[in-house]
Input
Amino acid sequence: MKLHTYFRSSAAYRVRIALNLKGLAPDQAFVHLRKGEQSKPPFADLNPEHLVPALEVDGPDGHHVLTQSVAIIEYLDEVHPDPALLPADPLGRARVRALALAVACDLHPLNNLRVLKHLKGMGHDQEEVDGWYRHWVAVGLAALEAQLAGDPRTGHFCHGDEPGLADILLVPQMFNARRMGCPLEGYPTLLRIDAACAGLPAFAAAAPDLQPDAEA
Output
């Protein structure tokens, strides 16, 4: 396997956590998003979406390029099922997927690099762009806090007492919120779960500042 990644990409961060939980260490290729390398060959030929991560894998029918972090993580969970990242029961799986997709589909897309750059290109100053970012983080995290705090299925982690897909999505989003100065004191359940994840080597080793391509 080869993972195409960028140290500060939260989507790539998710996949790094999943790989670590599975005990997998693929080769890595670094795509510098702020230099626009995602939109130039060779990476642009590999992934027409011009987004990281991308995971190259070999299957029985040849070589494949997997894209979209949640799809990659579910592929890893199917091919390397131990430890499981989704519950065994259908209702539990639906709950964990919903929590994960609340980040991947509703929160993160509004605040990723290309959206923020487009806002600036439309004439918004940095203060307005930062306000946009913090607004949508607050909306998304408040919803997650309410879902997790009010559900008895929430345990040490988002679902029960073992880390899974929802935790993998939550931790990079919490990292980004801190980096952007978003207030987090209103989310005690999220903070507790984030701290529990930080104590696990698989999560800690995936942190952006520990990656080979990390920059100040």
